[in-house]
Amino acid sequence: MKLRDFILRRVLLAITVVFGVLTITWILAFIVGDPVTMYINENTPAEAIPAIRAAHGFDEPWPVQYFLYLSNLFQGNWGVSGSSSNMPVLEILALKFPATIELAIVAMIFAIILGIPLGIISATRKDQKIDHFTRIFSLAGVSMPIFWFAFMLKYVLYYYLAVNNLPHLPGGERYDTSTYLDFEFITGFLLLDSLIQGNIPIFLDGLVHLIMPGFALGYLTLAIITRMMRSSMLEVLKEDYITLARSKGLREKVVIYRHALRNAMIPTVTVIGLAFGGLITGAVLTETIFNWPGLGRWAVRSILFADLAAINGFTLLVAIIFVTANLIVDLIYGVLDPRIRFG
Amino acid sequence: MENQIAMTANEEYDPMQFTIAGITGMLVGLVSFIFGIAIFGGLFVAGILGLFSIAFPLPEFFGSIGLQGLLALVTGFVLYRTSKAIKKHELWAFSTSLYINIFAIVVFVSTSYPVVLLALLPLIPLLMLFLPNVKTYWYPTFREDITPRIKELKFSLRLVAKSPLVVAGIIILLVFVLFAILAPYIAPYGPEERLWSDGNLPPLSPSNQPGRPDHIWGTDNSGGDVYSRILYGAQIDLQVSITVVIVAVTIGSLIGAVAGYYGGKIDELVMRITDIFFAFPGLILAMAIVMALGERSLQNVSVALMITWWPTYARLVRGQVLAEREKLYVEAARSIGASDTRILLVHILPNTIQPLTVQATMDTGSVLLVAAGLSFIGFGPPAGIAEWGWMIATAQLYFTIAPWAVFFPGFAILFVALAFNLVGDGIRDILDPKLRRR
Amino acid sequence: MTESREDIVLEVHDLFTNFYTFEGTVRALDGVELFLRRGDTMGLVGETGCGKSVTARSILRLVEPPGKIESGKIIYNEIDKQTGEVKPIDILSLSEEELLDLRGEKIAIVFQDPATYPNPVFRIGDQIAEVVLLHQDLRYDVIDMKIEKLEKSLQGESDPDKQVHIKEKIEYYRELRKDPPEPDKKDAKAAAFRRAVNMLNLVRMPSPESIAMQYPHELSGGMRQRALIAMALACDPGVLICDEATTALDVTVQAQVLKLLNHLKKEIGTSIIIITHDMGVVAETCNWVTVMYAGTTVESCATKNLFTRPLHPYTDGLLTAVPKLHENKERLPQILGSVPNLITPPSGCRFHPRCAYATEQCKSVKPKLTELEPEHWVACHNPLN
Ligand SMILES: Nc1ncnc2c1ncn2[C@@H]1O[C@H](COP(=O)(O)OP(=O)(O)OP(=O)(O)O)[C@@H](O)[C@H]1O
Ligand code: SF4
Ligand SMILES: [Mg+2]
Fold first, then answer.
1. Containing domain of residue A240, as a range?
2. How many domains does the structure of chain A reveal?
3. Domain containing A97 — which CATH number?
4. Per-residue burial over B323-334, b = 16 or more CB atoms within 10 Å of its CB, e = otherwise
5. C touches which chains (3+ CB pairs under 8 A)?
6. Residues A239, A102: one domain?
7. Which of B119, B149, B179 is at the close of a domain?
8. Which residues 164-223 of chain A have a CB within 8 Å of chain B?
9. CB contact under 8 A, B276 and A145
10. What average pLDDT does the segment C6-22 reach?
11. Contacting residues of A for C228, CB less than 8 Å apart
12. Could you report the per-residue pLDDT of B357-406, keeping only the tens digit for each?
């Protein structure tokens, strides 16, 4: 199979999955839930509800409603968020998206940069001290209630230090809004925008603000990557072709980093794609704690107001991001493993 | 051989005994099947209400009515089929029937129907297997078969005992299960008890109310005793996560087995559906489901988590079934006329149980984390009920005054999730044939 | 084995290797004795599980945990190319660093299963080039390659000015060839790849250029096996160990590969150890045979001798169990009883529970490998005659 066919097939598959996702959200919002709640609030008189229902086509047969739902979505009409002063959901999503993605990417980079070497070291020094340490560290990571971990970090690194007048990390927000009052966003990505404007102090301030949330969010992913890297590396190191590589007289370093690493990366890459879902989940659980103006905090706030349209839009967006991330991973997979690409 | 009875000439051969054993088994199977339908019928009438009864943690600790109904249905069906095979002298069915009857007793005991007498019902076909003629027919082969397995099991247990991490995990779990069971007896305060005079007390402080016990882990903002609430919280958190996994495993395996076994369009459909479910991160999907269900309750959370988790097991079981079927084709087991039930019970089930156990154990930890997370963002039990995630969510607001009310529930979640992961990890290593021979 | 070091390339004395498993210590090698004469093809035979592969791996110190070489001596006698002096290398006392020079360059190995051995994510050519790049002096190759290229472009060039220019360049490289400098990485890689293609050609691979560009999973089993042989031979090793290099192949391909090995032996001057349980292969290709049983060497002699006059009861059993060559290609010889469990091996002579000639002595005293007849070593208290 050609590389082009491979990509095409994956993309088509992803598109069908996205359609499935649309269907599921429709079922949840329209069949299990009652869509009319998106357009009413406690002040709406009960007599008015049937009219609202009819106005939005909620009394039509299901197939018609489904069609309406899809056509609305494709026209960019994702409903309005009652809990955010009736702003269109799509608009809010676009507004909050960069903050969360920036955080997620930082967390991901952090997890990959640390996780892969940790996994390799742990595998090559199996059953030595560093391996035990790494295993416990990563096992704790996958068992950690992330919201609690974020809170503990904030308590120690911000609150405790600040109370004792020690140097401390900022406790929330993307940058110091009181100092940099007049900062204007362009793309919404703070690090990018500050660089474009050549505003280095804000860039650094943004980085400092990213440390704690990034670590809180990235720990789970770090743990997952480390575990996967370790086990796939152990698996690969037992393979015959590693013995062959050694029999050629290659240095152990070359054997590990050239012959084993590439094979061991194959399953790890899959996990990285899946971990992206964990990051978004983590955003929902930690953004409130760090007062991070992203999707997660907004979603949690919408939950409190039982804002169905907001949650529906959020779920959709997350699923689409997740599917895209996995698609990218699939493509990388094809590059890493010639057997897939041509097989 | 399987279909012919090799009897020595001087022994009397009585086919009646086989018929009796078969028919009693079939009858018990039918009873169980009817139970299942009755339970399910009642369930649909009553809605999914009563899925959890938090008030009685012990008797219904391991199951909800829905699960019991499903299990009763499946057990009944399988018992019926194996008993039919016994009637036809098919050798494989005897040992399977032995296991199924024991399993049926467990299922019957755990059902909330007038149990005591009915639970013993499967004993009848069980004893029928030991009618003299029947026994000489199957028992020798069974013993030959079971001895190496028991040896293998003993070996595995020895390895478990030797692995400090697994032992640690098991001990933590046992401790928390004991906490959950004994909470009413060892907790100094009630789960929803609040002493307004005792708000925000640090750990180890005495109560401001004369004659009340000390607050060893302090109190939260509204004067709830953290230690007691954690003990009671173990009931809910463990119950939710274990039940969710058991139900998800049951449903997922059934769907996966059907998909893998029949293949073709059904398989394709199931796989596409699981694909779609995998397109959502677990917590987000569960969140959307609870949101759609409307009411914030523990039941809804559990239902949402079950819906979120079944595809994992469907995939896993399907993969196993496909692999086993592949092997069977090679061995041409089908060509000698083996029935579907037999292939499923004798070849596929035993090989699926191991990976399923490992996955389920580790997932119980994840479900616990997600459930706590859901309740942290507001999808938990009704306010006031002791649940770890919810405890953190409320205490977090007052962390500057009473940080301990956040610390301890978090540690509880961490420890239990860690324990499940330790055990799952350990079992996987021990069961891995590649690792164990080294 | 009292021979001069010039004659013998590889000797193994009293080699013990254990595997430490959950179930107990597997005493896989229990005092193995071997020697390989320069230019010989030696067959190493024995039932499955008798330790042939472990011996081969031990020679290259490739035994991986939980396995461990406990004791013994493995000596590779290298002849210095300039002085012609014999330089014994004690493999077990080499440092990790020195070991790297031995592997692939002096002793190379072709493993048992071609399906799992090449690395699936690298091209065949790159995998061969890798070992060339590691061990070979490529300075001359690089310059030859450049000259060749220039000559080619010379032919296609019509402009006389440029022709002169190219000729000048060629002259320059010719001059440089007398004392070539270290090539840069890219050139060396290209040269190594060229050699890889040559090696593939040498092992009779059809259209070697395109094969070199392919991934292992795109080749058939026989082709992969040839690629592995090419890889092993790429650095003209002094000893080539073929661990059942042909077992996984079908009969015709097997014959081709064996023929190829014999042919290459003459061309490159390598000594070969062929590990097999196929006595037919031994009879056809080897001039010396060493027989192993349960981790011990039981007999070692010229192939002719072995077939006509086996002295060890086990060898005798092996041979009577083998059908005549042209009759049938049965592989596994059958001897009464079963291969012993190496966690609790029999005491004394490991063969005694299955041996028809066993005496009390055999149960307690382990027989030593001795030269019973000229050029014929046997380890047995009661040898046949
Ligand atoms: N990794 C290992 N762990 C435990 N035991 C091992 C291991 N590798 C080899 N052994 C043991 O060492 C003994 C010799 O194995 P070896 O592979 O050398 O046999 P062989 O003669 O090459 O057999 P075959 O003809 O099947 O290739 C066997 O009994 C085997 O059980
Ligand atoms: S030493 Fe004894 S047991 Fe061993 S082969 Fe010789 S005769 Fe047989
Ligand atoms: Mg071998």
1. 91-145+216-305
2. 2
3. 1.10.3720.10
4. ebbeebeeeebe
5. A, B
6. yes
7. B149
8. none
9. no
10. 87
11. 244
12. 889 998 999 999 999 999 888 887 877 788 898 888 888 888 888 888 88
One domain, residues A136 and A9: no
Q: How many whole angstroms from C56 Cα to the centroid of ligand 1?
A: 11
> How much is the mean pLDDT over chain B?
79
The predicted-structure confidence for A137-191, as pLDDT tens digits, reads as follows: 999 999 999 999 999 999 888 888 888 888 888 887 777 777 777 777 778 787 8
Query: C296 forms bridges with which residues in the sheet?
Result: C293
Which residue's alpha carbon is nearest to atom 1 within ligand 2?
A: C380
Strand order in the sheet with C107-110: C107-110, C239-243, C271-275, C41-45, C288-293, C296-302, C376-378, C370-373
Q: Are residues B233 and B332 in the same domain?
A: yes
Domain that holds residue B308: 164-436
| Closest CA relative to residue B133, chosen from B23, B307, B13 | B13
Is the CB of A143 less than 8 angstroms away from the CB of B417? yes
- What is the pTM (predicted TM-score) of this model? 0.83
> How does residue B425 score in pLDDT terms, banded at 50, 70 and 90?
confident
Helix H or strand E encompassing C82: none
Ligand nearest to the CA of B437: 1
Decide if A333 is inside a domain. Answer: no
* Angstrom distance (rounded) from CA B198 to CA B195: 5
Q: Report pLDDT digits (tens) over B280-305.
A: 888 889 988 888 887 777 878 888 88
Inter-chain residue contact C231 with A248, CB threshold 8 Å: yes
Sign of CA dihedral B370, B402, A178, A164: negative
Domain final residue pick, A88, A106, A132: A88
Instruction: Measure Cα distances from C340 to C47, C57, C196, C359 in Å.
Output: 11, 21, 44, 18
**In angstroms, what separates the C-alpha of C290 from chain A's closest C-alpha?**
23
Is the CB of A338 less than 8 angstroms away from the CB of C130? no
Cβ neighbour number for residue A210 with a 10 Å cutoff:
24
Residues A227 and A84 in one domain: no
Contact C349 CB / ligand 2 (< 6 Å): yes
Residue A227 and residue A96 share a domain: yes
Helix (H) or strand (E) holding C380: none
CA-wise closest residue to C44 among C232, C254, C281:
C281
Residues A254-304 pLDDT 10s = 999 999 998 898 888 888 888 888 888 888 888 988 989 989 999 888 888
Please, which residues have CB within 8 angstroms of residue A127's CB and are 6 or more apart in sequence? none
Q: Which one of A15, A23, A143 would you mutate to disrupt binding with B, by most B Cβ within 10 Å of its Cβ?
A: A143
Ligand closest to Cα of C317 equals 2
Closest to B252 measured CA to CA, from B193, B335, B311, B170: B311
| Across B41-50, B64-73, B403-412, C126-135, least confident range | B41-50
Ligand 1 and C21: CB distance under 6 A:
yes
CB pair distance less than 8 Å for C121 and A250: no
Determine the pLDDT at residue A224.
92
Span from the CA of C49 to the centroid of ligand 1 (angstroms): 5
Number of domains in chain B: 2
A227 shares a domain with A140 = yes
Under DSSP, the state recorded for B14 is -
CA distance A190 to A193: 5
Partner-chain residue, chosen from B283, B292, B407, that has the shortest CB–CB distance to A281: B283
Atom of ligand 2 nearest to the CA of C350: 4
Quick one: B71 and B204 in the same domain?
Answer: no
Rg (C-alpha) for chain C, rounded Å, is: 24
Q: What is the CATH number of the domain that holds B232?
A: 1.10.3720.10
Q: What is the pLDDT, as a whole number, of residue B369?
A: 93
Per-residue pLDDT of C188-239, as tens digits, reads 888 889 889 988 888 888 888 898 998 888 888 888 888 888 888 888 888 9
Domain C1-106+239-385 sits in CATH at 3.40.50.300
